[in-house]
Amino acid sequence: MSSTAKERKNPKFGHLPLSTSGPLETTLSGTALLRTPYFNKGSAHTTEERDTFKLHGLLPAHVQTLEEQARRAYAQYSSRADDLAKNTFMTSLKEQNEVLYYKLILDHLKEMFPIIYTPTEGDAIANYSRLFRRPEGCYLNIEDIGQVEDSIKQWGGPDDVDLIVVSDGEQILGIGDQGVGAILISVAKLVIYTLCAGIHPSRTLPVVLDCGTNNKDLLDDELYLGLKQHRERGDNYDEFVSTFVSACRKRYPKAYLHFEDFGVTNARRILDKYTPEIACFNDDVQGTGCVTLAAVMTAFEVSGVKWDEARFVMFGSGSAGTGIADQVKDAISHYTDKSKEEAGRQIWCVDKPGLLLKSKKDQLNPAQVLYARDDHEWQGKEHNDLLSVVREVKPHVLIGTSTVPGSFTEEIVREMGKHVDRPIIFPLSNPTRLHEAKPQDLFDWTDGKALVATGSPFPPVKYQGKEYDISECNNSVTFPGIGLGAVLSRTRLLPPSLIVAAVKALASSAPVLKGTGAGLLPDVTDVREISVKIARNVIRQSVKEGLAQETDIPTEDADLEEWIREQMWDAVYRPLKLVEEEGATAHARGETGVASSKRTGN
């Protein structure tokens, strides 16, 4: 990637408010400029910029390129003793120079993704209060509900925020309740949005809803920074969430809202409550379902399985499992004209009580009840373990979100292989130590016939002298493109039809269908171009349904894709232009973004 932004964009769309062509306007100079991460170039400020912005004496004499800076930063990063130290280094870099931070990650995406996201980000979150150096977003707590609106207003005017990610920290990255440390998952998700879809980093807002914590280790930790009380539930909790959503709608009426890592009892019902009202998304409920559905679509193309005959067994029926089931159910209905209820009968969900049955409704949450089977179907049949269910259902597709390591045993996999030609098996639990099966074993136990995707990265499988890439069902190839489409179209809502459009774009990019490999999903290294395709489909569908609030959206695919690319932020240094304070935007004054040192609080 070039270190400057010259001539990379389509000048046809350079007039757009989110255009990334041309210079960045700023009122800042001297140390104020260098302390603003989205303006600071450090040693890469040109001679002309050093003159204009009074930087002489504040920087070493030699002017470096972004590429030279990235090489130095990578050497510093590599010298850190362990992954958590590397994560901390990257956090520090982000607070100093946003362009260099993203450039470094993009140069080493495969290597750094596990450092700045799962699994290492989970360690950073678990140690949040001990590693804390400076605040990184908006901290709202349930004891100060009257302060929510004023707190939200501090992050800019109505047009300054495009995307808000919020978590209440109850179910973080497979490590459970992390209380106020959840601010880091909101930050990390926004980093992924920028890396993978070019969402402008200074136009985003990470939020934590501190409702207390049930994590005893945190409550007993004298350094813990959040509310030292057990989690609030019931009406007070709902009022807190409602107050937050209302404040966001009032202050940032065009912003897209992403819910992240809410607990299983709240994630689905909150999403269901607000989906008819605002453009919102829950990655745990919908994101995993989207990317998994895309892999299923590809596997069906390869195996010849028809949607009207496909049988699915879900092992693990929490937010992710039922979210995948929802996406599968919508797809079955879409492709077969079956009702949602009929489509749901092709899905069998297994969880801690065994197969979900209607007689167990007192043990089930509302999302699980939708997939509970009639007891009479299973009278006299074993249904309390996965093997019994697989033996009876004879599924084409087995999906694991159980976090039970090794639960897809050889006996279960061989039983599945007796009844279908190409077993489709997705052990999706992460981190890696929690996976239901190793891809190599799945190939060995099915004589190389299994179609496999995983929830964590795995090396290629070797079978009969050939190597087969294993696709990772990484939400990061899905939710950023959906968010980009939502932001650029300013869609009023995000109904299932827009998500289905996104999934089709993702599935069509699979290497196995394009003849470029064996993967059921595209690799994360191709994600920015994939995000363009996903955003294009989302925008098209939003316009078709009359939901898009943005005007003058191009109608031709080629123009629309250029329109999208023009508005995607790149990790390049753009020229700076000094402007007068009067009439300048909040961005030009250095007042936007989570690392702003000039936010006024108005």
TrEMBL record:
GO molecular function, one term: NAD binding
Co-factor: note: Divalent metal cations. Prefers magnesium or manganese.
Signal sequence bounds: none
Active-site residues per Swiss-Prot or TrEMBL entry: 117, 189
Cofactor: Mn(2+); Mg(2+)
Domain (Malic enzyme N-terminal): residue spans on this chain: 94-275
Region Disordered, residue ranges: 1-24
GO CC, alphabetical: cytosol; mitochondrion
Alphabetical keyword list: Metal-binding, NAD, Oxidoreductase
Pfam families linked: malic, Malic_M
Sites where the protein binds a divalent metal cation: 260-261, 284
UniProt: (S)-malate binding residues: 430, 474
Classification via SMART domains: malic (SM01274), Malic_M (SM00919)
Entry similarity comment: Belongs to the malic enzymes family.
Cross-referenced NCBIfam families: PRK13529.1 (NF010052)
Protein name: Malic enzyme
Origin organism lineage: Eukaryota, Fungi, Dikarya, Ascomycota, Pezizomycotina
